[in-house]
């Protein structure tokens, strides 16, 4: 990780302590013939978060699963990691074998895992497992609270610790808790199968911020909270009001350490492994198709073998031309459904190899053994095609690991449309894993793709993953946390300075002119998610109740939108940067802007049609103006958005384009801005000589507010 990224994460933390809480630990100490050895997991949550924690510092609370873990830890379960360059503290939580059986192999992986992956035929809800799950969640919460010193951000991870946020809230009501749920969140009709659904929702809603992988999962979570708990849900703001608190729910698609994986793929160790594996598998002159998975019924491994068999039947020329390498680590073998799957997969490998193989060639090479990190990078780099055929997946980091290791830009990603990663990676070849014929056709398309198209697709994929890596994912979390913490601070500031505001109005009126996004409400990933915190609204109501105070909200939002979001009577509201205003029931619109309404509607229709296939873009028709938001658009597509807006606006002479913060504003070609709007409000309220009669306070955070600063400085 670069120094600048480490500094950026430190800045976002603002001196606060970071505590990560997860079931799996990033480093295990195990006994071996050579003494105590360190084992690091390959892939998954622990591997993804370790580089982030090395940058951020702090404490990681996790189950001490290694058989030598507590021999190297102090009496409180603390050990500094990584071993060669300690950067943070690992706090290990001890669990007995019975607790692991009930909590991990029982409720977490026989109830929640199949429930959330739509595999309800595997779900088992046993009371003794639930009791163990509750007890272990309390154990984790107690261990975490012991680590909290002063201001802290506690970051709880995944379905193993659903109840932990509520227990943390009970122990420390002041601590900021954010939870990230790594697996899919099911729709209400599926979630309601769970007998403990209310307790699970109550546990998660102990958080201040709940993160999920995909906007679809956010929608499902909101519906479940509403249906099961009767909580007040605001879908526009993406919030849940429950138990006297407001919980924010947001999508944060997880990623990988792209730069670190690329460095590994370019290493000498990776090159040596590539040479070794090519020779071992006889890959000279052959194509390599790769699958990398835990052995899990959600990964679609039998489905991909069926597609391979269809390909070999439909296109026999591929016999002896390709090798399918399936790297599948055994997983959760204490659970019968996993043992059954392992037998099924191994039987399928044997059957297909016997049916289609020859003395010199086997279609499938099955690898259950563990490999070091540089060998895994070699697999990804060597592959002509990587197959991710998930039947359900929150994200699937294998897809992104493959992309990051494809330094030669020659591989093709075949990706299930049922994996969360699919919507982020539109340059992959998409499959429905249940459609064997279509799946086989996609494999053939990938294998026969021209080198130029392979390179172009992979360049897009690599640019996206590099720009949306694990550090960007953490940055999004901390920015959201910072905004929520800032709203606490903002409401406290308004309350703490109420007396000073009263002092300012003694003898002369006060005009308080306020921006909305970023000032009254935190900046949100998309406009509909912004929400005015209740304490801020209450403070504004107190000010609005004074006869000698004028409060005006001047926003780029439409007039109707800003009035609805603030919802305080007696204010002056100015929408579309002041092109339209209202106070005491009177509405005023700049006549020149009114005449361009149809032109604005027309360009919105054109842009929506033109940008329909661009990920993350939002065309917002605000009546007198339009906003084209690209905050969530992949970097390679941003220029396409900009060019579309500029070209379409150029076709309509009465419109102009103004750049903003990850937004392009389409405007009527009139000389108007927030400065002129502020002047008009003050003149209407206090007359042409307002500057000598009123104290003006303007608060804003955007470049559009600078027009007001200039205008009010020199009336």
From TrEMBL:
<dbReference type="GO" id="GO:0004805">
    <property type="term" value="F:trehalose-phosphatase activity"/>
</dbReference>
<dbReference type="InterPro" id="IPR001830">
    <property type="entry name" value="Glyco_trans_20"/>
</dbReference>
<dbReference type="GO" id="GO:0005829">
    <property type="term" value="C:cytosol"/>
</dbReference>
<dbReference type="Pfam" id="PF02358">
    <property type="entry name" value="Trehalose_PPase"/>
</dbReference>
<dbReference type="InterPro" id="IPR023214">
    <property type="entry name" value="HAD_sf"/>
</dbReference>
<dbReference type="GO" id="GO:0005992">
    <property type="term" value="P:trehalose biosynthetic process"/>
</dbReference>
<dbReference type="InterPro" id="IPR003337">
    <property type="entry name" value="Trehalose_PPase"/>
</dbReference>
<comment type="similarity">
    <text>Belongs to the glycosyltransferase 20 family.</text>
</comment>
<protein>
    <submittedName>
        <fullName>Bifunctional alpha,alpha-trehalose-phosphate synthase (UDP-forming)/trehalose-phosphatase</fullName>
    </submittedName>
</protein>
<dbReference type="GO" id="GO:0003825">
    <property type="term" value="F:alpha,alpha-trehalose-phosphate synthase (UDP-forming) activity"/>
</dbReference>
<dbReference type="InterPro" id="IPR006379">
    <property type="entry name" value="HAD-SF_hydro_IIB"/>
</dbReference>
<dbReference type="Pfam" id="PF00982">
    <property type="entry name" value="Glyco_transf_20"/>
</dbReference>
<dbReference type="InterPro" id="IPR036412">
    <property type="entry name" value="HAD-like_sf"/>
</dbReference>
<comment type="similarity">
    <text>In the C-terminal section; belongs to the trehalose phosphatase family.</text>
</comment>
């Amino acid at each position: 990780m670069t120094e600048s990224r480490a500094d950026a994460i430190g800045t976002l933390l603002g001196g606060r302590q970071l505590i990560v809480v997860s079931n799996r630990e990033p480093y295990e100490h195990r006994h071996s013939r050579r003494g105590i050895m360190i084992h690091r997991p390959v892939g998954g949550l622990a591997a993804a978060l370790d580089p982030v924690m090395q940058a951020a510092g702090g404490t990681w609370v996790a189950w001490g699963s290694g058989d030598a873990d507590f021999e190297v830890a102090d009496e409180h379960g603390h050990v500094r990691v990584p071993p060669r360059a300690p950067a943070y503290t690992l706090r290990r939580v001890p669990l007995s074998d019975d607790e692991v059986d009930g909590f991990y192999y029982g409720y977490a992986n026989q109830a929640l895992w199949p429930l959330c992956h739509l595999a309800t035929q595997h779900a088992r809800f046993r009371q003794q497992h639930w009791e163990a799950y509750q007890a272990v969640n309390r154990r984790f919460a107690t261990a975490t609270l012991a680590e909290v010193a002063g201001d802290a951000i506690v970051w709880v991870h995944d379905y193993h610790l659903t109840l932990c946020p509520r227990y943390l809230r009970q122990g420390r009501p002041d601590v900021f808790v954010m939870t990230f749920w790594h697996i899919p969140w099911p729709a209400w009709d599926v979630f309601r199968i769970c007998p403990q659904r209310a307790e699970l929702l109550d546990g998660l809603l102990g958080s201040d911020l709940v993160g999920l992988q995909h906007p679809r999962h956010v929608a499902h979570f909101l519906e479940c909270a509403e249906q099961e708990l009767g909580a007040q849900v605001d879908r526009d703001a993406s919030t849940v009001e429950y138990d006297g608190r407001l919980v924010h729910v947001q999508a944060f698609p997880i990623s990988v350490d792209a730069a670190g994986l690329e460095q590994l793929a370019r290493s000498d160790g990776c090159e040596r492994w590539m040479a070794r594996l090519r020779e071992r598998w006889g890959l000279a002159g052959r194509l390599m198709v790769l699958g990398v998975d835990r052995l899990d019924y959600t990964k679609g491994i039998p489905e991909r073998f069926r597609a391979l068999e269809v390909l070999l039947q439909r296109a026999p020329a591929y016999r002896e031309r390709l090798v399918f390498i399936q790297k599948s680590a055994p997983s959760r073998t204490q659970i019968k459904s996993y043992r059954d799957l392992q037998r099924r997969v191994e039987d399928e490998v044997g059957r297909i190899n016997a049916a289609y193989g020859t003395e010199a060639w086997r279609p499938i090479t099955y690898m259950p053994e563990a490999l070091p990190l540089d060998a895994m990078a070699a697999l990804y780099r060597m592959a002509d095609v990587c197959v991710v055929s998930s039947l359900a997946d929150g994200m699937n980091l294998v897809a992104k690991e493959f992309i990051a290791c494809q330094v030669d830009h020659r591989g093709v990603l075949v990706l299930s449309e049922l994996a969360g990663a699919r919507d982020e990676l539109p340059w992959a070849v998409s499959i429905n894993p249940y459609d064997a014929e279509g799946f086989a056709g996609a494999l053939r398309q990938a294998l026969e793709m021209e080198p130029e198209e392979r390179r172009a697709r992979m360049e897009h994929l690599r640019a996206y993953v590099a720009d949306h890596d694990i550090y960007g994912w953490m940055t999004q979390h901390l920015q959201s946390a910072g905004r929520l913490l800032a709203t606490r601070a903002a409401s406290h500031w308004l309350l703490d300075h109420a007396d000073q505001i009263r002092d300012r109005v003694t003898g002369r009126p006060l005009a308080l002119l306020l921006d909305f996004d970023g000032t009254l409400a935190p900046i949100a990933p998309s406009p509909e998610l912004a929400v005015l915190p209740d304490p801020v609204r209450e403070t504004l109501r107190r000010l609005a109740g004074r006869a000698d105070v004028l409060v005006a909200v001047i926003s780029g939002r439409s007039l109707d939108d800003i009035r609805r979001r603030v919802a305080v009577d007696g204010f002056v509201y100015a929408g579309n940067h002041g092109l339209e205003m209202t106070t005491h029931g009177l509405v005023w619109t700049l006549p020149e802007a009114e005449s361009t309404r149809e032109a604005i509607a027309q360009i919105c229709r054109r842009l929506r049609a033109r940008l329909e296939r661009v990920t993350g873009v939002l065309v917002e028709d605000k009546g007198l103006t339009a906003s084209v938001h690209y905050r969530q658009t992949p970097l390679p597509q941003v220029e396409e958005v900009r060019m579309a807006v500029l070209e379409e606006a150029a076709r309509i002479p009465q419109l102009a384009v103004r750049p903003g913060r990850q937004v392009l504003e389409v405007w009527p070609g009139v000389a108007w801005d927030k400065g002129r709007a502020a002047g008009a409000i003050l003149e209407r309220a206090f007359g042409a000589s307002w500057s000598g009669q009123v104290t003006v306070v303007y608060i804003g955070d955007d470049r559009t507010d600078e027009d007001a600063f200039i205008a009010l400085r020199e009336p």
